[in-house]
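Here is one chain, start to finish.
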Amino acid sequence: MTAFDDAFAESCANDPAGPVALILRQNLLPVEGRGSVIFPPTYADIGYNIDTLSDGTKVATVDSVGAQANRMEPLFMVASPGEPENRLAGLVPQVTITYGNDKSISILEAGHRLGDALIRSSELAEEARRAFSTFLDADDASVIARLAPTSLVFGAWDSRDTQAKLPRVVQATVRAWDVDQLRRSAQYNPPINYAELDVFSEEEKTKQEGNAKSLLAQRGFVHVPASEALGGVVVHGEIRREVTVNLVALRRLRGEGRPVMRRYVLGLALVAATAPLDGYLRQGCLLAPDPDDATAWTAVGRDGTRAVIGLEEDAVFTFAQRAAEAFGVGPDRTVAFDRKRAQDDAKKKA
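Its structure:
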């Protein structure tokens, strides 16, 4: 096993002949046990995203690249009041957008990161645009690294403005292999007969019950069957989480103090990638690592050679902390949502 130390980290961040990627293939299990039903995400028009391979094997998406990124990014948020202090929060600038009546949201919760409509609708709009333009025109990522470094870690696309596209350094997916899709049906029975209480007539009850689209059914006053709904999947193969740290994309980051900046982004990427999985993906899908799976991080060389790497969570954090101090974490910011900016932006053509 290759130890994770400063020399190895430097080869990852700045050596053109260094590893091209760090990868993890982790088997997961439903908390109910192997072979239990899990519920994948549903998508408009298609339901579950299930692909059929040439040999007939059906593979279900359990968590997409974007979903995994949106689960990892809040790892860097300041802890809520009453919760233990989050040591990762000091590694990135805490940018907060206030809106409404004393409400606020962190940029770490914005799905499109620095390219999100929320940023264009705030006092950060011009600064974010300059950061993207600097990356696009001068090939300089350092401004983004100080303003919103997780946009470099998890990627961002300023598709509504400058068209600057930041590749993901960290990406992860969860897929289930060899699945069978299930269906489920249900029946809602109201606790009392409202027609007997003259809330509406027996004729109106008969007319509307059984029709999920009827007004009385939508309001919960009559019997409503729900049949042939999505009922989850049974997984006969593996539920596999695959995490990739793209070191080629990392080493292509350029700008002021780029060796130090790359080490900083590497530290953030490794912290996010090695953090314990929050396996509650959605209702009916609570997963945990398979205790019988000998999971290990692997470094993939330019020539395809593979070596097991000892990426321990505490060692990675210590490296990330030192890299952040060397680079200089950008300042924390609190900015206001600007309704006029949002209204103007909403009128622009894509």
